[in-house]
Request: fold
Amino acid sequence: MLKLKRGLSLLATLPLVFSLSACAGQIGGSGGSLLDTIKSRGKLICGVSGQLPGFSYVKSNGEYAGLDVDVCRAIAAAIFNDPNKVDFRNLNSKERFTALQTGEVDILSRNTTWSMSRDTSIGIKFTAVVFYDGQGIMVKKNSGIQKLEDLKGKSICIGTGTTNEQNLTDQMRQRGVNYKPLVFEDANTVFATYEQGRCEGVTADRSQLVSRRTTLSKPDDHVVLETVLSKEPLTPAVVNGDSKWFDMVRWTIFALINAEELGVNSQNVGQLANSNNPEVKRLLGTEGNLGKGMGLTNDFVVHIIKNVGNYGEIYERNLGKNSELKLERGPNKLWNQGGILYAPPFR
Amino acid sequence: MSSFKSQKPTILQWLQKNLFNNWYNSILTVVCLWLLFFGIKGILTWVLTQAKWQVITANLSLFFVGRFPQQLYWRLWLALFIILGLFGLSWGTFTKRLPRQMNSWLPFGWALSFPIILWLIGGGFGLQPVESNLWNGLLLTLVMAVISIVLSFPLGVLLALGRQSQLPVVRWFSILYIEIIRGLPLIGVLFFAQVMLSLFLPVEYRLDRVLRGIAGLIFFSAAYLAENVRGGLQSIPRGQIEAAKVLGLNAPLTVLLIVLPQALRAVIPALVGQFIGLFKDTSLLSIVGLLELTGISRAILAQPQFIARYAEVYLFIAFIYWVFCYSMSLASRRLEKELGVGQR
Amino acid sequence: MTPIWRNRKFFPILGQVIAAFIVAIIVMILWHNLIYNLHRLGLQLGFDFLQFQASFDIGETPIPYKSSDSYSRALLVGLVNSLRVIVFGIILATIIGITVGVGRLSDNWLVRQLALVYVEILRNTPLLLQLFFWYFAVFLTLPKTENQISLLGFININNRGVTLPFGIELSSELSTLILGLTLYTGAFIAEIVRAGILSVPKGQWEAARALGFKPNLMLRLVIFPQALRLIIPPLTSQYLNLAKNSSLAIAIGYPDIYFVASTTFNQTGRSVEVILLIMVTYLTISLIISSGMNLLNRSVQLKER
Reply:
């Protein structure tokens, strides 16, 4: 018997050895910039939501689509001249920052609000705003609710892990209004629950409210209140301390905006390379050395625009008049057309 | 009844015997019929007139294989063919329609098919690689459930042996692990694996998301497996161990050759039950952001044209889960009978 | 003198020393990585954050709570919410399980088949999907408050939840969670009950019948007490499963302890502390359930005479 037990105990030490050897896996350094890693890897890894109409979702044919998705495609086009060299990873609102911090994704393009605490205390950097949003509230038209105070004692549906949850708490506390939050993991659930009448109101970024409204069974029965609870600048983020990669992402986004401002789009980008306008020439790299300075080719903007289009094209395709969502551009018009979209010049 | 085959009861007799044999059974029958009528009527009306099944038909390939490249589907068909072939052969030998000699090489066939199928799915070594990021839907559910159960098996057996060990240190570590994991909800274990595991590993060492999901399932499943196997170990009569000793086997060999095979055979039904549980539990991976069957359904529900179609989608995937789990539990009952577990 | 490795105590002790050593090394490596990673990300360890202001609202507060309270208060609210579900769930699942388990053995063919269909459907689909089904397809499609359904005159059901007499109100989320957990666990308990009843020897049935017991009295006084011995151990693990499965509340927006803890993690980034809290909470709940059931088990086991 004793022998048997000894045998058992020897065997039993095996799982420990097993797990130890699992810990000592490949350990290889990754010095230098992420940009170099991405180039040698041959593709970009981009964290998205994957469940947000208009921003990122999976189409029936398995392709990703949306504004957040196209930002990543633009970056891939800038590096590889191929918008399809991207791997998309679905991240929920809880794990998104961890995924970026631990290097699981190269960039977080997941309608994330740029806020001070996120920028300064969790080891990530926000690049450039791709969508100016604000938090709103949607209610039934016939409910008689017109301002936040009218929601006293009522239920409001919210998504968890978002700035929306905290903003609503702040706004209601400031007004001394008691309400019942109904918090869900997943944005689809939030709106499904609202549509079924479980909540009197639903709060989210206004872009989402407007786009989701079109998908409700009777869109005209619902109204997005005028009240804007907060500013929500949605911004792709990268990990802290890699300025080369940070610059690259940031100037890809600026290139999309500047291209629209200068009238460069996917149709005319081929001819415009020989334009007389020096600004266009600098943007498209026929003049100057802007791309090389960043570790790319000088004509990287040509690659971007040819493959994904400029900001206006991306917007209309995913959110605007060419999409099912028909979202007005509002503040996301260019600065010289009444909006606040403004990119520093290519100079 | 079977001895009176010649006097087959008429329908009326059958009804009286089985449905209306006394007053409370009659009431029960009427109530049940009433419930059934409204239940079935409601369901049929919904399925045939109100439901819009286009969300399913448009996304069939997403449900089953996710974003796996279309031109490589042949590899999945081949894998399915291998599995079905092996199943057929196993079932044949099992029900003694095929010669018994097959028994000796079938396990090798299964063991060999495992890496081959993974190779067909994942590629590499001459095949075009397909990243785990693209295996979604039912494919991912199956891959994760199978890999997790296979890998948690050795760990579970070792933990069970450790818990039975005479050495206090080994025993206490095993008990600690088993009891902590069994006390935690799976969603907590998955959260740990998905969000925190990378904090415990060196910076350069990164696990793929799917691998982390599998790691979580293995951590979880091994603890439950250990308890099942322990049940089997305890059922081995002492005489077996003493007989092995008389034959001159040393302790590790006794465990390996005499105790374990018998113990494992005794717990096969429990293991199948656990596999069914694990298969259902993979749905929780959708909460930590993986695109297995439930996760891909949530992604499909974000397609602008199908946004409110959750009833159709959830019923459809519930049906898929049900088909798999129910056929496994049927097979396990059959297996139990054939092996005569509990009768020897 | 015999060499030391010939001593029969040598190998067991060596094995243990090696095992302890390996575990210590693993723990050290993991701990070192953790500290390094946390430092790299600018996070700290410690439970001081529990006293910070939570600044989020909770939908269901059985004990007073407002968003200016601390995280520890918020977690307490979550714990109370969890316990409500677990206690109600265990009681109702037992009732349903026994009813269906007995129904599986009924001499009414239709009842037997219905019980079988119930068990086979609920046991073989994921609980998560069942919860979605009950929430979206059942509770949220119920009529609004104005034309609510009234059962027996004192139970009112509408799409906000269920109102019971004595002012007890259950929200739809709480009702869904209890209903879903109860029906799911009930299906497993039914099979346990059925196996338990079948295990009672035939002679006992015949003896009870010979003594002139009516069927329901026979079941209650003779068969069930004997079946209970076989039923209790697996029943305990079903209760434990129910308690752990209550964490799926997060999918349908019911603020249980796991939900509140995960919001806390979200706002503070303290993953290590939060997972420790979750661990301790569920282990304690499990321990309470299993020790309660052990007491019960001891009281029904055969006394050696």
